[in-house]
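Wed. Picked up where I left off yesterday with AcrR family transcriptional regulator. The coffee machine is broken again, so keeping this brief.
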Amino acid sequence: MSSNPPRISSGRGDATRNREKLLNIAAQMIQERGVGCLTMDGLAERAKVGKGTIFRHFGSRSGLLESLLDHTEEDFQRQLIFGPPPLGPGASAKQRLLAFGKAVIDRFEVNGELVQAARESSDRRFSAPAAQLHRMHVMILLRAAEAEAATAQSPAAPSTQPADVELLAYVLLAALEPGLLSYHRRVAGISPERQGALWGYLLERLLPEAP
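Structure written out below (tokens, as returned):
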């Protein structure tokens, strides 16, 4: 009898289910032992598949971490797009930006180790799907906030130059970078509450209420 582990089906119709199974097992391993203990060999052994199967799905450990991060982000992304206000539609752009930043900070308590490992272990720090979606979300809300401010502005008020929302999104999201949030908490002793207050302060300075 062969000593090789059972193989996951390689049929095209099973590819998505196989990948989902591997991601769920990887998430369970991280929950049990932390991100540092997740290896390609360990996942293959736990899932009872050949190591080559893991590499075919994810390419590398960095690819696995990025895919796992995207997997855990799906629910958060649904909340941003379809969820109730203020995180989802129905609140002002400024309120949604405030809720977004505080939600990212709160979620770091749960998946911060994974976020930091995925971003630090990959040169796709800014081009990973989750990072792109966050940046696009912030850009859309910045444009909406600009439009709301223009609507509320007195006709006699001087017009302002439209902001470079793409660059502003990068700058704002720098305050939510996993490495910075981690350093704040582990080294500087800065609480999530203070981090959330800073996010609110940045938005107040950037998007002051109309007089």
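Quick read: The chain has two domains: 1-59, 69-206.
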